[in-house]
Design a protein that fits this description.
This protein has about 70 residues and is α+β, with helices and mostly antiparallel strands. The chain is built from 1 helix and 5 strands; from the N terminus they run E-E-E-E-E-H. Helix content is about 20%, strand content about 30%. A hairpin with a 4-residue loop joins strand 3 and strand 4. The protein starts with a strand and ends with a helix. The mean pLDDT is about 80.
Length: about 70
């Protein structure tokens, strides 16, 4: 589900440890929100936010880790 950033105005975002420091793959997640894990592109903090259920977060991360590097 995609959402507007305004819904998460007080969220505390952190950059993923898998994000690169060269402006490439930059993903941020917001922690501490009950039942959901919002994800956004840190290069576009005012852009869309993808919201995953907390139950879907672990399988999502596992799938990303298992995907071949491009």
């Amino acid at each position: 589900m995609a959402s507007n950033r305004a819904e998460f105005g007080t969220a505390l975002w952190r950059k993923s440890s898998y994000s690169t420091g060269d402006g490439g793959n930059c993903v941020e997640v917001a922690d501490g929100l009950v039942g959901i894990v919002p994800v956004r592109d840190s290069k576009r903090p005012g852009g869309a936010v993808v919201v995953l259920s907390a139950a879907a977060w672990s399988p999502f991360v596992a799938a990303l880790k298992a995907a071949p590097a491009r």
